[in-house]
Specification:
Elements lengths: L2 H6 L8 E7 L4 E4 L5 E8 L2 E5 L5 E3 L4 E5 L4 E4 L8 E3 L5 E2 L7 H4 E3 L2 E4 L5 E8 L7 H6 L1 E6 L3 H13 L7 H22 L7 H4 L6 H10 L7 H8 L3 H12 L3 H16 L7 H8 L4 H12 L3 H8 L6 E6 L2
Length: 324
């Protein structure tokens, strides 16, 4: 598969939390659920997205915003509106003082808020575990990514708005797949937009020399690659490949291969039947011990600890990106 397909093959929601939120101004909701990734779009009205660590972004009707966790953020009609609702790690809604608001704000199937004549309507979907998105993708994303309204998204948003309030057999899987499609549309636009901050290894795929080396590393990570072998396949000298690869990708070929292998390992470790030994063989390590040592050196936790949830925090590119 091509690298874009491999990257986007990660998003697979499993029982994602999907909600329709209806609030008449003034309103402000604080999100502290520590979810790895959330997707939101405005059906009516607009909302300010105010990350604790990042630039504010205005999300208008039809815009789609992707927020990478686990950092907290606030959604509000205005940047200075005081917070009236906090959503915690268990998706529990409460006042800032801790009073439970679940019953008071319930409006029906997957719908909550405070309706009124000028109410804003927002759809949101929250991925519950890092393994649903993939380490490769989470590690590349900015903190906030906003895609302006587009024709392709409008169809999906309309369908999601209809389906989110339905309670039919199999509804959970329908909503999961719609959320995945909405996310993938934003990610494709981000990766294709010049200057939007896509990872260096993705941008470098078009280079006639580095692109060849990257495709080899990504498609056959278990192979025992050396810089000399990559250079031979790319038709250049070892020194020329090492210099150009580092310049375009931001790290030497062997360092990139190590990071790629460990990111793949992190994703594979989330598979129920995977063992450290089987994952080690699939990503190019000779033994479970070798993978464990490399994994702990780079990630700070062992593969077993990561599988148990210790690796939930994923570093990524800071900041807010608004696609043109």
């Amino acid at each position: 598969m091509d690298t874009l397909t491999g990257l986007l093959d990660g998003p697979k929601a499993r029982g994602a939390v999907l909600l329709k939120t209806v609030f008449d101004p003034p309103w402000a909701v604080r999100i502290e659920d520590r979810a790895p990734l959330s997707v939101l779009t405005m059906v009516r009205g607009q909302a300010w997205l105010l990350p604790d660590d990042g630039e504010p972004a205005l999300v208008g009707p039809g815009d789609v915003a992707v927020v990478r966790g686990p950092g907290a953020y606030t959604l509000a009609d205005r940047p200075d509106t005081p917070v009236e609702v906090t959503v915690g790690p268990d998706q529990r809604c409460s006042t800032p003082e801790g009073e439970d608001l679940a019953e008071r704000l319930a409006l029906g199937v997957r719908t909550w808020g405070r309706p009124g004549p000028g109410a804003a309507v927002m759809l949101s979907g929250t991925y519950q575990a890092p393994g649903e998105i993939g380490r490769l993708l989470l590690g590349a994303l900015p903190a906030v990514l906003v895609r302006p309204a587009g024709a392709a998204d409008a169809t999906l948003i309309g369908l999601l708005a209809t389906e989110v309030a339905r309670d039919e057999p199999g509804q959970e899987i329908v909503l999961d797949r719609l959320l995945d499609l909405l996310l993938i549309g934003v990610l494709r636009a981000w990766l294709a937009a010049p200057g939007a901050g896509a990872p260096g290894w993705y941008r470098a795929q078009g280079d006639p020399v580095v692109g060849v080396a990257l495709r080899l590393l990504h498609e056959e990570p278990a192979y025992g690659w050396t810089v000399a072998e990559l250079a031979r396949r790319a038709g250049v000298s070892r020194a020329a490949l090492a210099r150009r690869f580092t310049e375009l990708v931001g790290e030497p070929p062997v360092a990139h291969l190590t990071g790629w292998r460990l990111a793949l390992a992190a994703d594979l470790l989330r598979e129920p039947d995977a063992t450290v030994g089987s994952v080690a063989r699939r990503v190019g390590y000779g033994s479970a011990f070798a993978l464990s040592a490399a994994f702990k050196r780079v990630r700070g936790v062992s593969p077993q600890q990561y599988r148990a949830g210790a690796g939930a925090g994923v570093p990524g590119v800071p900041g807010t990106v608004v696609l043109g």
